[in-house]
Automatic annotation (TrEMBL):
GO terms for cellular component: plasma membrane. The lineage of its organism: Bacteria, Bacillati, Bacillota, Bacilli, Bacillales. GO terms for molecular function: protein tyrosine kinase activity. It comes from Paranoxybacillus vitaminiphilus. Belongs to the CpsC/CapA family. It is found in: Cell membrane. The chain crosses the membrane at residues 18-40, 174-195. This is Capsular polysaccharide biosynthesis protein. It is a multi-pass membrane protein.
Length: 247
């Protein structure tokens, strides 16, 4: 015989474990807010754009084959711009006290689809330093690419700037809190159903009929301890009254 669970039983389970769900959700949300606002380091972002094009002012008509070549070169440039040959000079000129590997991890190179423009984006806790690294990387790359590939087809389209009242790109406290709230709620609900599933104790006469498939013939009432004390007190008072009347 298949066991079915009604919506009423589901709501009863949620209501029974409501304190647990609220507790877990609250702890997850508050913890996420505290960590996001007070423990995570704000990270700022700065970007510069680089144009890959043939440096020839006399050329008026674009060659489609040449543009396609420049687009293919962008993939090569994306590797070169993060290479030690470029980053070592950036590290030296800015006097940055961090390794080449750490500097590499801070820099992301991305290109627009079918575009001769690609961007160099730098993440750093200091917005001014992020802009400085992005600009210096673009400048060094423009100088060194002529020596490396014997091609002068790179120009800086826009420089990274430090904006006033610039906001960090991460962490995002409100998003973190919202995610923690949803995760905490789902965890609380899941744990509530798990505890209910593992709880195989018999508490009511309905549980007997449900699990044992037997009819309930009678129920023995439970006398609470307070009620017993009250009865004993009444009996003592009655005995005291009886003795007073007898005397």
């Amino acid at each position: 015989m298949e066991e079915t669970i009604s919506l009423k039983e589901l709501f009863q389970t949620l209501r029974k474990r409501l304190w647990l769900i609220v507790l877990i959700t609250t702890i997850a949300t508050v913890t996420s807010g505290i960590v996001s606002y007070f423990f995570l380091t704000p990270i700022y972002q700065a970007s510069t754009q680089i144009l890959v094009n043939k440096a020839n002012s006399e050329q008026q008509i674009y060659n489609i084959g040449e543009i396609q070549t420049n687009l293919q070169l962008i993939n090569t440039y994306s590797v070169i711009i993060k290479s030690p040959a470029i980053l070592e000079k950036v590290q030296e000129e800015l006097e940055i006290e961090r390794s080449i590997e750490q500097l590499n991890e801070q820099i992301q190179v991305a290109s627009e689809k079918d575009s001769q423009v690609f961007s160099v984006t730098v993440n750093d806790p200091d917005p001014a330093l992020a802009a400085a690294i992005a600009n210096k990387t673009a400048e060094v790359f423009k100088e060194e690419i002529v020596k490396i590939m014997k091609i002068d087809n790179v120009s800086i389209l826009s420089k990274a700037e430090v904006k006033e009242n610039q906001k960090p790109v991460k962490p995002k406290p409100l998003l973190n809190i919202a995610i923690a709230f949803v995760v905490g709620l789902m965890t609380g609900v899941g744990l509530a159903f798990l505890l209910e599933y593992l709880d195989n104790t018999v508490k009511t006469e309905q549980d007997i009929e449900k699990h044992l498939q037997l009819p309930v013939l009678g129920v023995i009432g439970v006398i609470e301890q307070n009620e017993q004390k009250a009865k004993k007190t009444k009996m003592k008072m009655s005995d005291a009254r009886g003795e007073s009347f007898g005397s």
